[in-house]
Amino acid sequence: MQKIQNTCLWAETLSEKPPGRNKRTEVEKAFVDRLRQSFIQFRERTSVLVDQIESSFEALTVHNMSHIDALWESASLLVGNSSNLNPAEAYVLGGAFLLHDAGLALTSYPSGLQQIESNPLWRDVVAQQFMRTNGRAMRPQEFDSLPAAIRESALEAFLRLNHAANAESLGTVGFSFPSEQTTLYLIDDSELRLAFGTLIGRIAYSH
Predict the structure, then answer these.
(1) Which residues sit opposite 185 in a β-bridge?
(2) For residue 104, which of 11, 12, 56, 163 is within the disulfide window of CB 3.0 to 4.6 Å?
């Protein structure tokens, strides 16, 4: 989080005391405080998903939270010291940074493998991996008894191909934890989730 807080983009938008500006009104301060606290929690919850990406891929460039935080530095270079973004826009942009890579994680699918295997893309990916390995098309009955190696390679390929589409839903989808009898959202603030969750997902998908 420190890397983000050191950027001029954060300083100009979501920091407690933006430099070079008139003092915020009490209403503005309360809203920015709400956005800031929501983003910090949003980032913490997303990091749980992002931390699982490495375990799903044997060979992948770095897609951890440090990589995502660095996008704030890149964005700051683009906008310069005098940002034209307001706090709400920075919140949406930062959320899109979080969700795009989070879509790579197996744990970003609330229903896990069942959700993946019910996706029409799954059978196409499996068939491609089977053809690549065996040099022939799959028979329908072979989908029910996949070799472990083909299932693993198909899962990795599916997560890669579908991660942007998956990211689109993560701003609004709930993750159920039966043991705790509760549903958690990456954006916990329900009003901010309703206002910005869909937009954040769409921008994450477009990247």
Answers:
(1) 174
(2) 163
CB crowding 16-33: b at 16 or more within 10 Å, else e: eebeeeeebeeeeeeebe
Higher pLDDT, 145 or 194: 194
Going by the DSSP 8-state scheme, the letter that residue 61 receives in this structure is -
Sign of CA dihedral 66, 205, 168, 148: negative
Q: Estimate to the nearest angstrom the gap between the alpha carbon of 179 and the chain centroid.
A: 24
Question: By C-alpha distance, which of 26, 1, 171, 29 is closest to 93?
Answer: 171
Cβ contact 171:196 at 8 Å: yes
Mean pLDDT of the residues in the chain: 87
H or E stretch at 176? strand 174-177
